[in-house]
Every structure is written in structure tokens, then in C-alpha cells.
Amino acid sequence: MPTGVQLRDVRGQLFDAAERILLRDGPSALTSRAVTDEAGCAKGVLHRHFDDFDAFLAEFVLDRAHRVDAQTSALCEAAGTGTVTGNLADALTALFRSVAVAVVPLVTFRDGLRNRLRETWPAGIPVLTEAVTMVAAYLAAERARGRITPEAEVDGLAPMLIGTAHLLFGDRRTPPDDATVHEMVTTVIGGAVREPRD
């Protein structure tokens, strides 16, 4: 008797299932049984590919953190186009409507996961740390183009934007609207912008 469906990309399908549960039900609902049920496979599948559930979660979090790399490339390519405020607001909205907000309580919720991540992650919380790097790289690219002031401290502005966006999006059933995100970005970086604001 079959115990589930055959998975072609086991890790990818299990990670996608974990992301859906995390976004829909929060970190306390994320169990190995919930993940395999969501993926439509037998529970043993997860344990054949990972040492234990915390090992699975660590790989899941790191996979999602590395996905920010693609967003970094896209945002940096946008430098010099549109407006600085608009580009940042769009990037932050995309980031925080994804799994980024949900990763923070997941990491703080599970001691075993934090211990696993400390083995490979240098510092900070994955996804948010990558997001700070993304924003800093973009701001540096815009500073090089003269669209923000030469004295703008991009390494200070980037964590301010990520932290403020996290507070704005965190723990809300309804995410903030575009105008609210634009207003927040303008408040944080407005003094550094050298272009007409949107």
C-alpha cells in the first residue's frame, strides 16, 4: 500500500511545504508530521534525507536565506532606474511578504535550530542578515550614481530599513499597504536622497 506520492525534488518540496505551513499557521505548527502531510508524502521521507527535524529546519532556513541573493541582484540592477524610494519599497514589500518575517520567530522558538545554525551561519538571523546586505549593496550602488548623498552611511541605513520594515510587517494579519511602506522608506532615507521623491 503506498504511503505517499513520489517526490522528484524531495528537499525542494519539503521546504516549500514547510514555508506554506510557517506562513499560514506559524512556527508552533511546524512539525515533521505537518511538513510531510503538507508535501503529501510519508513521514519517513523527511528522516531519510535529514538527521533530525532541527537539521531539516536549519537547511530550510539557509535555503530561504540564500534566495535573497537573487533579490539582491535584481535590486542592484535597478540602481539608476525608477526612484530610490520606490525601488526600496518594492524590494522590502516583496521580501517581507515572503517567509522573511516568519523565519525570525521560528529561529527564536527552537533552541535546537539556533544551535544548528550557529555551526554554519556567522551571525545574526538568516534572511534578515542577507536582507541587510542586499539593501546596503543597493544603497552603495545608488550612492555611486549620485542618487543619494556621498556622506550617506549605507551600513547604518540598511539595518534601519530592515528593522523598521520588520516591525511594520511583523505580527500582522494584513500587511501594510504600499503607501505605508513608501512613507516608512522616505522617513528612514529621505535625508540622503538626491532625486525627486515618489
From TrEMBL:
It comes from the Bacteria. Residues 8-68 form the HTH tetR-type domain. Keywords: DNA-binding, Transcription, Transcription regulation. Residues 31-50 bind DNA. This is TetR/AcrR family transcriptional regulator. The lineage of its organism: Bacteria, Bacillati, Actinomycetota, Actinomycetes, Pseudonocardiales.
